[in-house]
Design goal:
CATH architecture: 3-Layer(aba) Sandwich
Number of helices: 8
CATH topology: Rossmann fold
Mean pLDDT: 94
Helix content: 25-40%
CATH class: Alpha Beta
Order of helices and strands: EHEHEHEEEEHHEHEEHEHE
Number of domains: 1
Strand order of the largest sheet: 1-12-11-8-2-6
Strand content: 15-25%
Number of strands: 12
Low-confidence stretches: none
Radius of gyration: 17 Å
Length: 268
């Protein structure tokens, strides 16, 4: 049964608490198995969250939020801030629009501007979806191969279902209930049971067009899944999904098999 929690508050408060949770989980993952694998969400909602992660969190705030950094590791600090352990972190993306990395609609570009602009993340620790290369179908195949190769190389055994388990996976929520690039009108994508990444067409997306997305089997194997939403409409929808008043939307199908699920709803 999924361990689920809902948090609601101002954008600043939610960005800080979610960032503290992510940084805390990073250190616990490293203490447990030597690395932290993080999947980033796209869109605009995560911008304040990424900025807080990049800045670091006041060390005293972890206890304030009921979090405890592992005693076996010495956190990286800059002044009074605890920083993300970038050199032991590997980054992936949950979805990407089929545009070049410098395009305004690129999820990679958004993360680069808000999270990666001044961090010591080793270049080889970054797994961008090369969505502008070849065909979307080929890109999806190559991205899945990269994910499987990463977990094989780093000694992290697959689950019995042969699906890797990321340490933490971030998701956004659309007002139509979509998450990553999994939309309600694409039943084939929602029913995918074997592939980890697929190409989809999102004619009603913002913007519309071809995309690459990870699939529900991969999402639901993560050790931690964290939704970060902003705006009143999305907050209302998130609460309905959390309380199981909406069960058929793509975001409602996110239910980690052996992990925890967090909902952060930020409002102005």
């Amino acid at each position: 049964m999924t361990n689920s929690k809902l948090f609601s508050g101002s954008i600043a408060d939610m960005a800080e608490e979610a960032a503290a949770l992510i940084i805390n989980e990073a250190y616990h993952s490293i203490a447990d198995h030597g690395k932290f694998s993080l999947v980033l969400a796209g869109g605009n909602s995560p911008r304040p969250l990424y900025q807080r992660i990049a800045e670091g969190i006041e060390t005293q705030k972890f206890a304030h939020y009921g979090l405890q950094l592992p005693e076996t590791l010495r956190p990286i600090k800059k002044g009074l801030l605890t920083q993300m352990p970038w050199k032991q972190t590997w980054l992936f993306w949950g979805d990407e629009r089929c545009v070049p990395p410098a395009h305004p609609d690129s999820n990679y570009r958004m993360a680069k501007e808000t999270l990666l602009f001044n961090t010591p993340l080793p270049e080889e620790h970054l797994f961008r979806i090369d969505a502008e290369q070849t065909t979307p179908e080929r890109v999806a195949e190559e991205y899945e191969t990269s994910i499987r190769s990463f977990f094989s190389e780093h000694g992290n055994a697959h689950t019995p279902e042969k699906i890797p388990a990321f340490d933490l996976l971030l998701l956004g929520l659309g007002e139509d209930g979509h998450t990553a690039s999994l939309f309600a009108d694409n039943s084939e994508a929602l029913q995918e049971s074997m592939r980890l990444a697929i190409a989809v067409d999102a004619p009603d997306g913002n913007p519309p067009g071809k995309r690459i997305t990870i699939t529900l089997p991969l999402i639901n194997q993560a050790r931690n899944v964290l939704f970060f939403t902003s705006g009143k409409a999305k907050a209302r929808l998130a609460e309905k999904i959390y309380r199981k008043e909406e069960c058929d939307l793509p975001a409602a199908l996110v239910s980690p098999v052996n992990g925890r699920l967090f909902w952060f709803t930020a409002q102005p």
